[in-house]
Structures are given as C-alpha cells and as structure tokens.
User: What shape does this take?
Amino acid sequence: MSSPIVSKDPHEPALKRAVFFDRDGVLNVDDGYTHRIEDCILIDGAANAVEMVNSHGYLAFVVTNQGGIALGLYTEDDLHAFNQTLFQKIHQASGGVITDAAFCPHHPKSENPLMQHCDCRKPSPKMILDLAQKHNIDLAQSIMIGDRDTDVEAGQSAGCRSVLFNGGRLDDALKPLMSEQEG
Assistant: This one.
C-alpha cells in the first residue's frame, strides 16, 4: 500500500485537499459503458456537489474505469468528448470546476492482451496517486466518492477517506463530509 504524499521541503507549496469522484453513477447517469454525448445526464445534485467541494477549498478530480475502450465499444476520443461535455454541464449549472481526470482504458475481458492487464484499473489506487503527485494533493485530507466497492477500496488504498455513494442527491451525500472535514 502506498503512503500518502507528504510535503517535507518547507519551500514546497502547501499540499491541497481534493475530492476524487468516480464518474459513471456518481456524476452522471450510468447506462452501461456510457460514452455518447447525448447520454450525458447529470446525477441529481452533481453540479452543486462539485461547486460545494470547490467552495470548501477542495480540488475536484474524476477517476474512472473505462473498459469500454478495451472492448472496442468506443474510443479515447469519445471518452474525452464525453468528459468535456460533462465538465461543461457541471460548470454551467453551478460554476463547479473539475481540475483534472484520470481513466483506465483496460478491461480483463478484452480480446487484445495489451488491454487486459494493467496497474491502473480500480480497485488499484494508481489513478488517485498519479493525480495526487501531479497536483500536490494531501491524500490524508482528501476524499474518494464512488458507487462501487472498488472505488472505495481504491480510495482507502491511496490513503483517502472513502465513501460509497448509494444514489440520491450527490450534494446531500457530500454535505456532512464537508462539515466533518472542516471540524
């Protein structure tokens, strides 16, 4: 298990806090290998949740398994177009900003052996750790929220507080987490 990133140099900028969101089923409605722009429908309260995270001083990130790429259901370009649309919808609805996203294009059932095995697919914490390194994130002060046990496991392995989102309004699910982190 990797340790949270800790700043040791007093001249380094202060570490930041973050909320890592799974994408499908947390920020947008999951219709199974969701990738078409016309299917980009926000989960109730998702835009407000991202804005709330930002207003509490957290950066917002997306970490998402996208095995449909390995299965040939859509391309990386399709994924990027969908993400851009999703992030724009969130920003237009609330002013919330997603700082960055990481994705795993692999799937264990891919016919392409190069796309079967990896070290980035959740429950691996690699996507979270890579974003934390890139953006100077204090993982011990950060949160992972997802709709599957693999999301929670990835967050815990990275050193984050991890929460399973069981549906409803995402902003309502995050409100108590934001006040707990402040206290």
